[in-house]
């Protein structure tokens, strides 16, 4: 049986599966077809929770005597948007000018396709690694991330699975393959502040209490002063107001309520708990200020609601994992990648609780865009990096977890 050594063929098979989150779309079935000839035992558990769609996931393991390496990723993709705006159909995997077009090409079916090809080439060349390799693949990364990686990790750990290291194949490179390895991520919390006022006529403000005035004071306190100046490994903490809404179509009516939604990305100066406490403190202090509410005797009446669960900041310190991957990149492309904690969150935030984890994948310039695409040359290069990493990491002496 022919092994899945060609990353372009692997990727084409995956792109042709319309796995727009939360649909499986045939992508996990395609993976199972690729993995079984390589000696992987494949399981596809489905997880559920009230109020969210059921999600099918995949866990595959090729067992051996030695350390255990996990590769993690997702086959679900974001919607294609206006399909007529695509130069090539988003689920056709067509090739033009040395690039393959399709939703998920870089985020992140391409990374999965390359890792499978790397394992297949290692099996073909050396019979496979002297240890265990597993793939932990969810269909819920682009969705609410409730019935995906979190539950898949718990399920696998409950069966006795333990891992010594993990790579998440997200597109980490900003410009060129080999630019960057992600060794950690900032934390993330979102919240909404609603100010309660008193509706009235804009010409008679003394009879009303404009909640927008109070909200301006609170938002100002969220934005100034800066939270910190950054740390050795992380950018400065940053808060962005992402929405302000009063639900008021009239121009001569003072609204009854005003709401601001925000997201804060925080570094290792803070924990989720301490940054939340800082936000509460800033809002409480600002509520009593009169700058935008002259003549008002009572503080701003506000409510703060934290949205979703926080993502915690983390930094991977496993030098063996980091240096081996850095060395594999340098040996393949001729330069050492930067080690970064920039960008948004990923499922690495869940994996960190089970084993050391880093992220490395394709160039992410077209992810989530119309005409998402990947250079065929990059697929070959990433496969080469993964293969070199597998050879080098399993070739070292490990204290098996």
Verbal overview:
The protein is of the alpha+beta class and 401 residues long. It contains 9 helices and 21 strands. The strands form 7 sheets. The protein has a 6-stranded mixed β-sheet, with helices on both faces.
Topology summary:
Elements: H1 7-15, H2 27-35, E1 41-43, E2 46-49, E3 52-56, E4 58-62, E5 68-74, E6 95-96, E7 99-101, H3 109-126, E8 132-138, H4 149-158, E9 165-168, E10 180-182, E11 184-185, E12 187-196, E13 200-201, H5 211-223, E14 238-245, E15 253-254, E16 257-266, H6 272-287, E17 301-311, E18 314-315, H7 319-333, E19 338-340, H8 348-351, E20 357-359, E21 373-375, H9 376-394
Parallel strand pairs: 5-8, 5-9, 9-20, 10-19
Antiparallel strand pairs: 1-4, 2-3, 4-8, 6-7, 7-21, 11-18, 12-16, 12-17, 13-15, 14-16
Helix pairs in contact: 1-2, 1-3, 3-9, 5-6, 7-9
């Amino acid at each position: 049986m022919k092994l899945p050594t060609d990353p372009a063929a692997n990727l084409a098979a995956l792109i042709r599966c319309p796995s727009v989150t939360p649909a499986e779309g045939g992508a996990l079935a395609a993976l199972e077809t690729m993995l079984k000839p390589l000696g992987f035992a494949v399981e596809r558990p489905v997880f559920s929770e009230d109020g969210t769609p059921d999600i099918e996931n995949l866990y595959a393991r090729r067992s051996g005597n030695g350390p255990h390496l996990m590769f993690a990723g997702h086959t679900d993709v974001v919607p294609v948007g206006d399909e007529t705006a695509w130069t090539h159909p988003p689920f056709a995997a067509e090739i033009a000018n040395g690039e393959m077009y399709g939703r998920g090409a870089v985020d992140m079916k391409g990374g999965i396709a390359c890792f499978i090809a790397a394992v297949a080439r290692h099996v073909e060349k050396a019979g496979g690694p002297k240890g265990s390799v597993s793939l932990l693949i969810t269909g819920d990364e682009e969705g609410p991330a409730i019935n995906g990686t979190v539950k898949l990790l718990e399920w696998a750990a409950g069966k006795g699975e333990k891992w010594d290291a993990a790579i998440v194949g997200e597109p980490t490179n900003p410009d060129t393959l080999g630019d960057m390895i992600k060794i950690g991520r900032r934390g993330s919390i979102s919240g909404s502040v609603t100010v309660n006022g008193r509706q009235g006529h804009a010409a008679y403000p003394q009879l009303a209490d404009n909640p927008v005035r109070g909200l301006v004071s609170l938002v100002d306190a969220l934005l100034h002063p800066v939270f910190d100046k950054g740390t050795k490994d992380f950018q400065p903490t940053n808060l962005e107001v992402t929405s302000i809404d009063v639900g008021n179509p009239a121009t001569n009516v003072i609204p009854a309520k005003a709401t601001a939604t925000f997201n804060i990305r925080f570094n290792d100066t803070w924990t989720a708990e301490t940054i939340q406490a800082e936000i509460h403190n800033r809002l409480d202090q600002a509520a009593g200020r009169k700058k935008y509410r002259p003549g008002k005797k009572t503080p701003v009446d506000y409510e703060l609601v934290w949205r979703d669960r926080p993502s915690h900041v983390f930094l991977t310190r496993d030098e063996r994992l980091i240096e081996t991957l850095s060395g594999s990149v340098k040996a393949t492309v001729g330069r050492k990648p930067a080690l970064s904690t920039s960008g948004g969150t990923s499922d690495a935030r869940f994996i960190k609780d089970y084993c050391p984890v880093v992220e490395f994948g394709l160039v992410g310039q077209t992810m989530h865009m119309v005409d998402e695409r990947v250079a065929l040359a990059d697929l070959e290069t990433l496969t080469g990096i993964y293969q070199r990493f597998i050879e080098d990491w399993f070739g070292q002496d490990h204290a098996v977890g």
